[in-house]
Amino acid sequence: MKKLLLPLLSLSLLLFGCAQSPVQPVPAPDTPGPAPVETPLPTAAPEPLWWEGVTVDDLPAVPAAPEEILAGAQAFYLLSELPEQDIALYGYGGSVLEDADFSGVLLRRGDTLTPFDQAYLPAVEPVLPELWWADFDGDGASELAVKYMIRNHTRSHVFELHFYAPEEGGGWTDCGLTDSDVDALLAQQVAYAYDPGSRTVTAALPDERVSYRLGDQDPEPAGDAPLCFLDRTFYRYRDGSFTGVYGTGVLLQGLGTPCYFASVTADVRYDGASVSLEHLHLTALGGV
Known about the structure:
9-stranded mixed beta sheet
């Protein structure tokens, strides 16, 4: 009987040792749900540009006086016109350029309006733009020249000259001569010299020169090329061509305003793509 119990006991132990432990359930990995869709915030419609939506019917037919423009009662003003060519220039009543008193013009040819962010009137002693229609580049077709006064302050009297070439369909291309353009062009052609012993500044062309002696209390010139042709820019028209007259000064250390001592006159040449200054003449301040 003991022999029978031993095998049964061994078999039961074997069966017990082979029994599997209960399997623990493995949690399923989290599956990300769809990302919430953010509703875009409503955006305000952009402000229309000053010239958008304007038609010829919205523009005045009677030329404005400078005093009317300064009063600011209208959105647009008729600045000048050439009725025979069906061309008119209008000024916007608000300010577009930060450094200008009144800016933004619409150039009309027929029923087509072309906008330009152009300064056209100073707030001090304003002068309205002048228009000329002629073949300025010699290609057999006429262009429009416009002279704008853009600054008229105590020490700054600046005109700009622009040539507008008509395009097919009634638009225009603009080729302008700003005071910055003039300064860059003349700086390439007018030589500068300074004699510290005599404290004499000289501006020179190949055949002409003007010298100026600084005062005893004047500071030294500022930098190696301190000649300045900004702030005093004028234009004269005669027989289909323009002459520019440009104040010539020297920048002195610590002073924001140039010391003017001469002027340069030059023929303005427009070739249909760019403007240049030719046949320069240099004179002492007080004569042109």
